[in-house]
Design a protein that fits this description.
4 copies of one chain form a homotetramer.
Chain A: E1 11-12, H1 17-25, E2 32-37, H2 42-51, E3 57-63, H3 72-75, E4 83-84, H4 92-98, E5 101-104, H5 111-120, E6 124-127, H6 137-144, H7 151-156, E7 158-159, H8 162-169, E8 174-176, H9 180-194, E9 204-209, H10 224-227, E10 232-234, H11 241-253, E11 260-265, E12 272-279, H12 286-296, E13 303-305, E14 323-330, E15 335-342, H13 346-361
Parallel strand pairs in A: 1-4, 2-3, 2-5, 5-6, 6-8, 7-8, 9-11, 13-14
Antiparallel strand pairs in A: 9-12, 10-11, 12-15, 14-15
Helix pairs in contact in A: 2-13, 8-13, 9-11
Chain lengths: ~375, ~375, ~375, ~375
């Protein structure tokens, strides 16, 4: 039930059937109808930002278990006049009546139970939680500390790291959207690893994230007075993104890969930087590497390879779906240093989810995602 | 000379005539051609961000006096793969050969000399400096401390505060884009002032701005270690936006208005908040005020009036062209408090300049400007 | 029960009786023994920072209702190796056995009940809550929305705005420490008001605070991703510091004073700036004002009057007990603008509380408080 | 020429001979007289903050090549009423007449020429530049890109990493104060390296610094709008602190050590975190490591070893001279991760310089440095 506001093109999801009819006559009938479960988290509200400008998708329902019945602008006044809607409750059958595709921006442990119910209704699902990323249930349970999802549903999940697995995503019914750290890590490491230029046993990943990565739930760690003017390491060797990274690197390397992975909280809202180290298997120059990476990502506009010796900064991708990568081979140590940056809320969550929607539907992968980084 | 990159829709201004022909055949021929002078400042680069997504305008030249000949990505690597162009020099005749409309995001004192030359070539101009805002040259010189522009050119300038002067902007050849502080101040005060509900002699404006308002030039005041975790008052009673505010309030009130105006630098990149105080001429309730303001701005989607007692925050307009306004009448003191917020780089500069382009060309004023605020 | 660690001079409150005896022999016997209730809040932990360096006071107990029994370093690892102590519970009788003076850094509504019990035991009390600042109980209840404290106890409370009421503080048994906003406001306004230079009916206070002012409790408003890169007005005309300001200005003016008072949250941890406006009663120059203010605060080292036209910034008092004041008379409007800044955790809370301890005990008011601002 | 201001104990370096005599009679005659060259940089002004509270040293001259003759409060108004002094010019002979010890907080390339002149006058020198840290002049010139200092003077320089080389510092005439990154790195690595528990060939250091580390000079990189809400890698494999780290690790290991070292700029003012990785030579537990580190630093109060699995944050040492260290051995990878944090302006510069003064003079190393971290 959607309608375009005549004055300013904004979306009113509380419209009547009448105005809906009007809307259909305006040619929106062919748009794919999407619903967002978890609309009051940062991933959910970022999905809204991008989908409002998507020419081939329309939001038909914004859903929140905790705030059902309330206007979405109660929690997000920045949407005043842009998205006029009360939040719906989580009811898979009702959702399926309205939507063709459902984004589940729900916490780990919730998705594992909710997604099977959604898939049964016949809707397509793009899940932003970590619940369907780990193929080995025992590994999942060891790192996530709760029950793995149903094996059969898990098998259906296509891991949607678009630039690597894009071909698998086309036509998929159920996509598991990658984690924020794994996205930055894997896009940075895979070209060198798949070319055999680095030693898989030597990989160390020093990851840094803005505070929005911790979500909208309040805690002492994310309290402004605690994390402002502060830099904090956390979950060293224990982050649940480690098995996701290792599973994918293992697949590329063709042998078991174990990594050292450290996470830090940086006093900024958005942005992830992964600084990665590995032993080079030969004397490759920066120019060799630039050539390798540019060829690897040819035709994939969201990965930008910097000139050798120029380092990307997180602000240079702020608010956008880009992943920027720089690197330097060091002849003194024989090591390669790779720096990759993303906006954790976009390429690390909502943006890549929409990129997956595009690939799933057979659209150009940049559809609705061509926003430049916001700078400064 | 522009061409659409086939792969990702990005803009390459270094294209050959050949590809240009190609591009024309793609139906871009009818777009209005725009040039941006001052492309390496924050106002200029924000014009680029919005114009890249504008369906009826295309950037044909990005111009910088200081960096002519260099790729724009040297200074702004976030545009890598998005805008491929070397910066052009400032040559009015050459600019006029390419462009229909020129944005001059040049410093005060530069625009006053450059704009007359541009107008002579027949292009339309939207000037983002303060040089053509003050109609009384002696007032201009007292506050700006340098020579006023040519009187005849000054007379042609239409002050482009869109929601107030939109009708004058339609069809104009030369628009003077309002200052950032005056935009937030005037949009907040004018409904109450024009209704006669507040005493013009009692107006006090306490303004706060993010640091990008000081421009990209380096200085000790904008050094990170000096202004981070700091709040600083500056130019009290001396800011050059005072006469701009007073000129416009005087016009609305029909009597000379003098204001107290204080500016503060806040440790954030973007955003302006003006907290304004005035004596009420009667016992108006918050509901009366909400009604008054909503009626005043009916049909103007970029001004959003909050429910009485709800206060807008700068982040709620971050990266967008909105101006959000809240207010409270206080029966204890008989005063009205008004809070208005804008993103200084958007509604306070580049966004309003594009809104002026839209009105000037007779397009919907929201064209190319429908980006939601980036939150969080 | 305290002992000086021989190696590094740090304090171990878990010491045995034996080491205590040792300690006494070192000449600490004459120090005043202080306890801090509410040691796990920002006011409490800042009291610890200053008292550890106080030559005439020693901390004998750090107390927390919520964390009793836990080491204080669990919540505040920055105190590792500096203050070795488990938190004590709130037991007035036990506290009185150890301490001569108790700081109650407890929430409003808690202090009102706790302080009478403490006073009964004979200890001196310095209360940092707002519970004993408002002399008229009906006014208190109207703004604080809960019961006023016992009238008899309330009468004993001396309002400890040191530079104004210092003489009353000397020898007092029970001091009510001023609020953060009132401290900055009153120190800025009182010299001009008491001289009759400004119109008491015209006072408007635009106040801005860092986020630590909201305390250590978590909330969406103080969540990093919400308030970083944001500026937010709150509680306009409704802040409970309004009656505290008005009560004191009324006393100075000798007539009822009502003020307009607006509060804003600024994305920084520490610091308050009050920008204040009032109508001048005559044509005073900035030099007149400088002279007036310097005379008023002669011999009071913690108030620093800036040269006319130089504006204090919050970072210039960061971490210190100073209140810096600047001002400008504006001949165009006949108004005076006053800017005062403090560190809300120091002069706005813990620092002033220790200054009150000093005055109460007859010591130099700067004892233990001579730390320079931390810059940058 | 110093005198204690009678009212508030602050320092007035512009005093007359008369007041100087007075001062001497107050018993300050035995204090060591210190001068600070480079008083208008962040290192210099932090020396002032700590020396003002140092019981055995007194500042007799604050010196600046660029601002000689101006009051120091022109550039640093936070010192208003605290340090009343005009800046002196750089004249080694004049300095030697006043001072016993000189701190040279001068840029690299300046110190190399200035220090020999100072030493010739017979004063003791503590140099905060990098000019005298590298013992091999060819290595110095390769990394610093300018001429090495005179060999004979270089030989006199004692590298003042207090917790490691403290014994050499006692009685030294000329100390080269360590760099900020090397301090955090070396204190974190040396216990494990000297015990032979880690492989010297496997060391990778991922370092992050607040923006004050770049000094007070303005640049685009330190412009607030550029580095706020940003995280930026820089000088990868090229930082001039690399040879300083390698020289010291080589000395400890007894074999040539080459490291991978990456630096990042973090949007905060103060703080350095070094996250370090090395291959373990055996199956050491976290408890083994805690024991090793605590023994190594026994009796050195400024190094604090955290419980295994607890990670220090930069804010926990803000404004103080502490270096906090945490670590985790990872059985999956056989690697050790070490996290060390310091305040770059204190333990990374001015604080350690004063610690060196203390050791040089035979005083307790904590003298004047017992300030707790400022939290929050």
């Amino acid at each position: 039930m959607t309608v375009t506001d005549q004055v300013n093109g904004n979306v009113n999801l509380n419209a009547t059937a009448n105005s809906d009819a009007l809307e259909n006559s305006q040619g929106h009938a062919n748009k794919v109808k999407v619903a967002i479960i978890g609309s009051t988290g940062y991933g959910g509200v970022e999905l809204i930002r991008f989908l409002l400008g998507h020419p081939q998708a329309e939001i038909v329902s914004v859903i929140s278990a905790s705030s059902a019945g309330l206007p979405i602008t109660d929690g997000f006044p920045h949407l005043t006049g842009i998205l006029v809607s009360d939040l719906d409750g989580v009811d898979p059958v009702e959702i399926a009546k309205k939507a063709d595709v459902v984004f589940t921006a729900t916490p780990s442990g919730v998705s594992s139970k909710l997604v099977p119910q959604l898939l049964e209704t016949g809707v397509k699902v793009i899940d932003l939680s970590g619940d369907f990323r780990i193929k080995d249930s025992s590994v999942y349970e060891a790192w996530y500390k709760h029950d793995a999802p149903d094996e059969q549903v898990l098998e259906q999940a296509v891991y949607g790291l678009c630039e690597i697995n894009g071909d698998d995503v086309g036509g998929a019914e159920f996509i598991s959207n990658p984690g924020c750290y794994p996205t930055a890590t894997l896009l940075g490491l895979i070209p060198a690893l798949s070319a055999g230029w680095i030693d898989p046993a030597s990989i160390i990943i020093d990851a840094k994230s803005g505070v929005s990565g911790a979500g909208r739930g309040t805690s002492l760690m994310t309290h402004y007075a605690e994390i402002n003017e502060n830099l904090k390491a956390y979950k060293i060797n224990k982050h649940q993104h480690i098995p996701e990274i290792e599973q994918n690197l293992t697949q590329i390397a063709g042998e078991p890969v174990t990594v050292t992975f450290t996470t830090h909280l940086v006093p900024m809202t958005r942005g992830i930087m992964c600084t990665m180290y590995a032993q080079l298997n030969g004397t490759y120059t920066n120019e060799d590497l630039t050539e390798l990476y540019r060829q690897y990502y040819e035709g994939r506009p969201f990965v930008r390879i910097r000139e050798a010796g120029q380092w990307p900064a997180t602000k240079e991708v702020f608010g956008s779906n880009y992943c920027d990568i720089g690197f330097a081979a060091d002849h003194r140590t024989g090591r390669l240093t790779i720096v990759s940056v993303i906006d954790n809320v976009v390429k690390g969550a909502a943006g890549q989810a929409i990129q997956n929607l595009n690939l799933m539907m057979g659209w150009d992968e940049t559809t609705g995602l061509k926003l430049s980084p916001v700078y400064p």
